[in-house]
Amino acid sequence: MTERFGQQTVKSIMPDTNISIAENLPLGDIDAGASAPECSEEPRVDNTKRRQILDGANRIFLSQGFDAASMGAIAQQAGVSKGTLYVYFKNKEELFGTIVEDKRREQAGQLFVFDAGEDIEVALMRLGRSFITFLCREDGLSSLRTVIAISSRMPAIGEQFYRSGPLMGIARLREYLESKVTAGVLEPHDCEVAAAQLIEGCAALIFKPMLFNAGRMPDPALVERVVGMAVQTYLRAWRRQL
Q1: Residue 208 and residue 47: Cα distance in Å, rounded?
Q2: Least confident of 37-46, 124-133, 202-211, 224-233
Q3: What was the pLDDT predicted at 111?
Q4: DSSP codes, 144-213
């Protein structure tokens, strides 16, 4: 049986996997006049229209970068009026945050899913491999660089990204580890700290070089070596001896 841990945890934010919105990102001022007008054309309930707008915004952020993008250009690309656009999103900051949030929620749900009957070592190795593959995708790295670049002037986006991305991953892994403590597989310990350390350990020597454009996508042998050492270090410390 497959269980999803941490479903109550905070929102998640990550761009669509085919998005690389940090490419050629200008860092000028946010476009003026991007606040919602007083009137609205339709109720904010049409999910198809909302998806249409988000897809159009995606394309504009990709081609123009965040700062150069305007609500007018997004409306045109999405095939809606500017008034309709403002019914759904009050400004492009909200649009950007929603794009990031939607995909982050989907990806977190896919990565941090555990089979309650699976051997813990197998489960953690699988998670580590999948996590590194996801983390080191070029589109994901570009999106992370975008968030870092704009978070100093839009701290809410940076905080939302952290809470719904890294913090959510830690929370879900913590819940899984706690379930294994309850089941007698692991000795009691601080599962929150252990989850954070295990995630960081799986990314050692791999993620930061790629984040700073100092490395390439690692070969499977390196991933296996790094993830294997992180998992074995954790299990040697906390696996209950029979």
Answers
A1: 37
A2: 37-46
A3: 85
A4: HHHHHHHTTT-HHHHHHHHHHTHHHHHHHHHHHHHHHHHTTSB----HHHHHHHHHHHHHTTTHHHHHTT
Angle at 189 between CA 183 and CA 195, to 5 degrees: 90
Tell me the pTM.
0.73
Instruction: Evaluate whether residue 145 is within a structural domain.
Output: yes
How many residues belong to the chain?
242
Residue 130 placed within a domain: yes
CATH number at residue 211: 1.10.357.10
CA dihedral (46, 81, 37, 57) positive or negative: positive
How many structural domains is the chain composed of?
1
Beta bridge partners of 136: none
Cα-based angle 204, 206, 208 (whole degrees, multiple of 5): 85
For residue 223, being part of any structural domain is answered with yes
Cβ distance 103 to 177 under 8 Å? no
Range of the domain at 227: 2-11+101-238
Residue 85 near residue 95, CB atoms below 8 Å:
no
If phi > 0 it is left, if psi is from -120 to 50 it is alpha, else beta; for residue 8 that is alpha
- Whether 213 is in a domain gets the answer yes
The stretch 46-62 carries a mean pLDDT of 89
CB 99 within 8 A of CB 15: yes
